[in-house]
Every structure is written in C-alpha cells, then in structure tokens.
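Putative tick kunitz 1
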Amino acid sequence: MQLLTIFALLCLLGPTLSTRAQEERCRRRAKSAKGMCHNEKEPKLRFTYNPSTGKCDHFWDLSCDGQILNSFENFTECMTACNPDSKCLATPDKHFQFPRKTSFVFDINIMKCKPEKSLRRPSIGPKINRFLKENDCKKTCEPRLIQIVTSSG
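Predicted structure tokens:
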C-alpha cells in the first residue's frame, strides 16, 4: 500500500519536478567565450535562452570545463525547451482570399519576421504567431544573431 502511495505521488509530482529542472536549465545564462581553452578547443556558435527577453540568442560556446546547461544546437531546440508556449513557435495561419491587410509573422525556418497579407484584420493574441507591427514581431521573436565575417585574402 505504501509503495502504491509513493508511486501515485511521483506520478502527480513528476511534471512539476521536470518543469522545475527545465526552468533551472533555462535560467542559467550562458556567457560567450572570450578566448580558447587550455586544450585549444575552438568555440562553437550555439543558442542560449535569455529569460529577460523570453527568446534564444546566438553565443560562442566554449565549454572548456564540460557541458553548459543553457546551450542548444539550434533556435527551435532552445525555444522548445525553455519557452514552449511562445507564439514564435506557432505555425502562422494562412489567409488566401484576396489579401489586403498586412501583418507580420515569425518564420522559424529563416528566424526572421516577414510580412503577410490577409483579407480581414488578422487575429492576434498570446498564442497566435501574428503581429500588427513588424517591430513587435522582431522584439518578441527574432533572435540576436552573431554574424561571421570572413575575408577572402
């Protein structure tokens, strides 16, 4: 009977405990690499979640001393782990009939906001990937990306 009670408690608390671990991982802001490791390991361009903006940004991950918790291979993986309810992850709804009104949607494939036209005033809200102003879309969804400049000698 005690074993059954413990099992029931774990089932009830399981999602809470995993959410807490997820939040802890995402709260630890990663610091961008400033140099090289002693083993001459080169930094990698990855994504880290910024809790103050609610979105993921590029950073140089060096991980000299092991794995950095708040470090993700790509933008989608980062946002899914740290802000799964973000409207930026939602697939924008399509309006095809005689588009007239312009609004903006975040395209996760190119990580940019783009204009889209619709027949009627677009629906906006906390779960809908659609913005009336381009700047609102950029501020909410577009990550801060690091541009790599190379010269061809």
